[in-house]
Amino acid sequence: EYYMVAAGLPDPDVLVGDRQRALAITALAFSMVQVMDIINAESEMRDLGVTLQVQVGIHSGEAIAGIIGHKRFQYDLCGDAVNTAARMCSYSEPGCINVS
Fold first, then answer.
1. Is 0.85 topped by the overall pTM?
2. pLDDT at position 42, please?
3. What is the structure's pLDDT at 1?
4. Which among 91, 97, 82 is positioned nearest to 6, based on CA atoms?
5. d(CA 63, CA 76)
6. Residue 75's Cα: distance from chain center in Å?
């Protein structure tokens, strides 16, 4: 499964400036890894026999965003930056953050 996050969309005034967006998305990435570690520690303590992994990829660039669909609406992102971010994620080691 994949989860795509975009900082600064749909309102770029919420996180003003490239630095603020970069810090926000990086903080989220570290939080995702930490939460997964906590979930796995709880799973191990309860002897559930389940280990979950998260791979994180970060890339910055322009994207086109919009709502697509006729019966089932979905907010979607597309563009070179989105494709690069997906590749960064797929190249990342589990529990790590891969940044371009």
1. no
2. 96
3. 67
4. 82
5. 10
6. 15
Closest among 6, 7, 3 to 15, alpha carbons compared: 7
- The number of beta carbons lying within 10 Å of the beta carbon of residue 17 is 10
Q: What domains are defined for the chain?
A: 18-99 (3.30.70.1230)
Residues sharing a CB contact under 8 Å with residue 22, sequence separation 6 or more, in sequence order: 7, 60
Q: What is the spatial distance between Cα 75 and Cα 64, in angstroms, rounded to a whole number?
A: 11
Q: Which of 32, 80, 31, 29 is closest to 58 using CA atoms?
A: 29
pLDDT tens by residue, 35-58: 999 999 999 999 999 999 999 999
What is the DSSP annotation of 23-55? Answer: HHHHHHHHHHHHHHHHHHHHHHHTT--------
Q: What is the DSSP letter of 79?
A: S
Structure-block tokens of residue 89: 């994620």
Are residues 60 and 19 in contact, defined by beta-carbon separation less than 8 angstroms? no
